[in-house]
Amino acid sequence: MNDSLDIFTPLPAAFEPLALELFRYQYEQNDIYRKYCNAIHVDPVAVQALKQIPFLPIQFFKSKIVVAGSFEPQVIFESSGTTGSVNSKHFLRSAAIYEESFLKGFEMFYGNVKDLCVIGLLPSYLERQSSSLVYMVNELIKRSGNAASGFYLYNHEQLHETLLQNEANKQPTLLIGVTYALLDFAAKYKMDLRNTIVMETGGMKGRREEMTRLDVHNNLKERLGSDMIHSEYGMTELLSQAYSSGNGIFTCPPWMRIVLRAEDDPFEIILPEDVAKNFSGGVVNIIDLANMHSCSFIATDDIGKLYTDGTFEILGRLDNSDIRGCGLMIT
């Protein structure tokens, strides 16, 4: 599969043909995916529509090397997990594909990163070297070119001073942080951030009592003076992210799509156009065309709600699923 395949600007009508092309490639070249398809008795020749493509359970990333083709990985990302858990690993043939995906996706929603001061409040993620989230935010920081851009561990006083200075200068700023760290900072400093986008990436990691997203967002809005709290939805096993500009409603870039599967039938797929005539709740399956050298079709453990325009919410997690470091809070 050629890296130059134009997956980042597909017209809506081109998404399904591209997905089917990637399915055929990954069935042939991804040993784990092919074995899974064969185990559930899927005939690849009979797969002629999006709804017929099998989705690989995300747990395979914990115990198998999920790659399409043979290559030495340029980067290996690992999920954060919890003490004693088995973490997922994502083997990347090329970091450039990941960078192209997250940069184009980010700028589609937030404009040129050079116009922003980018501040990352990701203390637990910075303490390890294999976080895809840290990789993304670090690249955004570098590309912003702003002298005040950077990561903050636990130096909340300096972060407070930087934000105050940016507000005084009316400098557009992105404060992107893991949820518990944003809550810890907001508990210490009450601010009135009018030029700053506050974006939570999920993740309580046992640091705080679990809160609903509504409670988290109301807390941050009240303490930090933001009208809306933005959110990022991504995971170690993906190369693309969806974003919410408020109220927990996420939008995907054109090369990423959310569909649902029925909780009582993992092979019943619900597309956005099915929502009105069926139901809008189910378990989240993700199509990520950027994930061409791994698996583009992933069945997650997240419970979601899908809308007819393709936007979605995350409502919680299936029972008995592992707690994920990047998982969003239950509602």
Structure description:
The protein has 331 residues and is of the alpha/beta class. The protein folds into 2 domains: 12-82 and 256-317, no CATH class; 96-233, Rossmann fold. It has 9 helices and 15 strands. The chain has helices spanning 12-29, 31-39, 60-63, 95-110, 123-126, 132-144, 156-168, 179-188, 213-224; strands at residues 56-57, 75-78, 89-92, 117-121, 150-152, 173-177, 196-200, 230-233, 242-244, 250-251, 256-262, 265-270, 281-288, 297-306, 312-317. The chain has a 7-stranded mixed sheet, sandwiched between helices. Strands 1, 11, 12, 13, 14 and 15 form a 6-stranded mixed sheet that branches. The chain has a two-stranded antiparallel ribbon with strand order 2-3. Strand 11 and strand 12 form a beta hairpin. Helix 1 (12-29) packs across helix 2 and helix 8 runs parallel beside helix 9 (213-224). The longest helix has 18 residues, at 12-29. The radius of gyration is 20 Å and the shape is globular.
What brief labels describe this structure?
single chain; 331 residues; alpha/beta; Rossmann fold; 7-stranded mixed beta sheet; 6-stranded mixed beta sheet; disordered C terminus
Short synopsis of the structure:
30% of the residues lie in helices and 22% in strands. With 331 residues, the chain is an alpha/beta fold.
Order of helices and strands: HHEHEEHEHHEHEHEHEEEEEEEE
Helix content: 25-40%
Number of spatially distinct domains: 2
Shape: globular
How many strand elements?
Answer: 15
The CATH class designation of the largest domain is Alpha Beta
N-C termini distance: 40 Å
Identify low-pLDDT runs. Answer: 322-331
Which fold does the CATH topology of the largest domain refer to? Rossmann fold
Beta-strand portion reads: 15-25%
Overall average pLDDT: 90
Order of strands in the sheet with most strands = 5-4-6-7-8-9-10
Number of helices: 9
Largest sheet: 7 strands, mixed
Q: Please identify the structural class as seen in this structure.
A: alpha/beta
Task: Specify Rg, calculated over alpha carbons.
Answer: 20 Å
Task: Please identify, by name, the CATH architecture of the largest domain.
Answer: 3-Layer(aba) Sandwich
